[in-house]
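step 3/5: co-fold with 4'-deoxy-4'-aminopyridoxal-5'-phosphate
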Amino acid sequence: MAIGTICATWTDGRWHDGNVPILGAADHGTWLGTLVFDGARTFDGVTPDLDLHCERVVRSAATMGLDAPLEAGEIAELILSGVKRLGTDAALYLRPMIWSREGSVAMIDPLPDSAALAICIEDLPLREPGEFALTLSPFRRPTADSALNDAKAACHYPNNARVVREARARGFNNALSLDQAGHVAETASTNAFLVKDGVVRTPVPNGTFLNGITRQRVIALLRADGVEVEEAVLLPVDFAEADEIFLTGNASKVIPVTRYEDRVLPATRTGLRARALYMDYAHQTRRAA
Ligand code: PMP
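step 4/5: write tokens
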């Protein structure tokens, strides 16, 4: 599936136009689901935190038992070459992917040095803040000892997909999911923040959800702006009683929530401030370059 109309793929050592096949029918990763990936963005001529996204895909590969075929810096260079080759002003989604070609003698586990790398670049507009309804999902996150939560891996996403599918069927855009202890973890595709009495609060990383690159960037930017940000154990009631809720993730950066369950959240001031700080930061990376 291509999500955009512009698409380029790096595989087998070169760039190709379009959505070209990358997995072999007999690839270990096709069969047993070892594929890890990361998602970065380019828009307005900037690619904020591309280095961190490439470092994370290399770490995700290691968590999956794979030796990334290239170093993070080399992957970033390749991605930038692909963006240049496309020569478009469109906002792009930049996705490096690593998976196993071969399994070990036991077959279940991958051969580390059989890892393959592909990169896909597609156009994907940045979502602008607007109406956004959030609910609480009946589906939970696995514990760190029951899934490879440290890896950004494709195999996690069927669970996230049912979170968002179930939420959409009830008229919501996305849903908070809880960890096995009943603490709020994240949504199907973003990290979550709330604002209560002027303090920004977000779930403290506990190994059950992705400690997002955008999340960490936004925490640092808000703190530098003089806002108090607490990483804490949060319960559904904290979100139910929040003055504001906003979500962070690479795809859309910062999105204020305008409805939580049946409660309209009129205030989006802090969320919009966080978004503006993020966009300033992103645009400064070009001026510094
Ligand atoms: N949680 C999940 C499940 C995600 O898919 C994403 C998007 N990558 C995030 C959180 C946000 O992470 P990041 O800011 O690193 O994109």
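step 5/5: annotate
Residues 39, 160, 186, 189-191, 210, 212-215, 248-250 surround 4'-deoxy-4'-aminopyridoxal-5'-phosphate (CB under 6 Å).
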